[in-house]
Design a protein that fits this description.
The chain is mainly α. It is built from five helices and no strands.
Length: about 100
């Protein structure tokens, strides 16, 4: 990994563009990532851990592919295939089994 960073960092240095283009969109994206995705997500994770078991909280992470699938359909009108839907249903079924076993 370090070799890739050094290689692509060197290429960028030769071209003279090591810094990102500072713009309003860049600042918003950094703030969104730092505040919402990181702090709010981590806080929600701890909040859920206080209310229920670690197994139940961790099992919800298996819904990430299904949520991504739905967001890509809604935002970019990506086509859905039967294999995608089957995978989402299997993940949902696995989550249901975990929740059911937890009681």
């Amino acid at each position: 990994m370090c070799c890739f960073i050094a290689f692509f960092g060197g290429l960028s240095a030769i071209k003279g563009e090591l810094l990102p283009v500072i713009s309003t969109g860049f600042a918003i994206s950094v703030a969104w990532t730092a505040l919402f995705s990181t702090l709010a997500g981590y806080g929600l994770y701890w909040f859920c851990l206080k209310r229920t078991s670690a197994v139940r909280v961790a099992s919800v992470l298996y819904l990430s592919p299904a949520v991504t699938l739905l967001w890509s359909k809604a935002a970019f009108n990506e086509p859905l295939s039967w294999t995608m839907l089957t995978g989402a249903l299997l993940s949902g079924y696995g989550l249901w089994l975990v929740v059911k076993a937890e009681g």
